[in-house]
Design a protein that fits this description.
With about 325 residues, this protein is an alpha/beta fold. The protein is built from nine helices and 15 strands. The chain has two domains: about 120 residues, 3-Layer(aba) Sandwich (Rossmann fold); about 170 residues, Dihydrodipicolinate Reductase, domain 2 (2-Layer Sandwich). The protein is about 35% helix and about 30% strand. It is globular and about 55 Å long.
Length: about 325
């Protein structure tokens, strides 16, 4: 199968992680980087052994050597540069959140569909066999009927971190809440009502947020996120007959997940047949994501997440933000 040549917009840290991750990829290879300055782009290219570097995003989009683009610019620029990349004939993987408003997400997918291009929101954990195992266990009724989802993602970040910049779409919800909200939707469906409370800093950025959501079939989800707390990565799905616990749900570095039933606990291997050649490190989850998207680009493989999912995700994030600002529930 043909290799897909990728370019990355921005020299942000996440771009470095993704480029390194594809060193073991089957179908994805990064060949170019663009920054707002020639010097920054050259440094990034030299560090990661990329063939091309550009001092503007427009130059990279004009390169015939690039088939697809990873958009890792600040949140407020995601929709603009996704659309511009699509208009330049490039497939796009856009770092989460795909859009800050549902209508912006719809506009991007309109362009992608008209051009016949692949366009994906970068929620990398969804492509990993760990997540697929959890979904399979739920579908098989391993814990009975799902009734409650509990998730958390908290970190400590510096005061000057770009994720605290309100003008660039910063905040715990847009940075961390994407994962918890998307997991709730993935396992339990789109919420009908949400309620969120947030603690904000002097600039109005949500630094700590907790949410409760009502979902189909009487499922309730609760999650919390924060910028000033110890690192926590948690996901638990509780059903009428048992529970599934995932202790590393977002980076997916563990070899097993825990299934509890009838007072007994068992470990289920994430990749028992070794199909994904997992190293159980920070890079697996991004490598698998890039290969899945590259396969869709080259071979027409059907991706499980597209337009509807990205727009519903943007709707949910907006509803959670609105609820936290109003201090009252919001109907979806």
């Amino acid at each position: 199968m043909t290799e897909v040549r990728w370019g990355v917009l921005s020299t942000a840290r996440i771009g470095s992680v993704v480029v390194r991750a594809t060193r073991r990829a089957r179908l994805a290879r990064f060949v170019a980087v663009a920054s707002r300055s020639d010097a920054a782009a050259r440094r990034f290219a030299e560090e990661h052994d990329l063939e091309e570097s550009y001092g503007s995003y427009e130059q990279l989009l004009g390169s015939d050597s690039v088939d697809a683009v990873y958009v890792s610019v600040p949140n407020t620029l995601h929709s603009e540069w996704t659309i511009r990349a699509l208009e330049a004939g490039k497939h796009v993987l856009c770092e989460k959140p795909f859009a800050l408003r549902p209508e912006d997400g719809a506009s991007a997918f309109d362009v992608a569909e008209q051009a016949g291009l692949v366009c994906v929101e970068g929620l990398m954990y969804r492509h990993h066999p760990q997540t697929m195992l959890v979904r399979r266990l739920l579908d098989e009724g391993a814990i009975g009927a799902l009734k409650h989802v509990r998730a958390a993602l908290t970190v400590r970040i510096e005061k000057e971190d770009i994720r605290r910049d309100r003008a660039l779409g910063g905040g715990a919800l847009t940075d961390l809440g994407c994962y918890c909200a998307s997991a709730a939707r993935l396992f339990a469906g789109n919420p009908s009502r949400v309620f969120a409370e947030a603690v904000r800093d002097s600039n109005g950025i949500d630094t700590h947020l907790a949410a409760t959501m009502r979902q189909p079939r009487d499922v309730i989800t609760q999650f919390d996120i924060g910028f000033d707390l110890p690192r926590r990565d948690e996901l638990e799905l509780i059903g009428t007959e048992g529970a599934i616990t995932v202790t590393d749900p977002w980076l997916c570095r563990n070899e097993t997940i825990e299934l509890r039933r009838d007072g007994q606990s068992e470990k289920r291997p994430v990749d028992p047949e070794g199909r994904y050649a997992l190293a159980h490190d920070d890079h697996d989850v991004y490598r698998i994501e890039l290969d899945a998207i590259s396969e869709a680009i080259t071979g027409g493989a059907q991706l499980p997440f597209g337009r509807t999912d990205a727009i519903e995700q943007a709707r949910l994030l907006k509803a959670l933000s609105d609820s936290s600002l109003r201090s009252q529930p919001v109907a979806m």
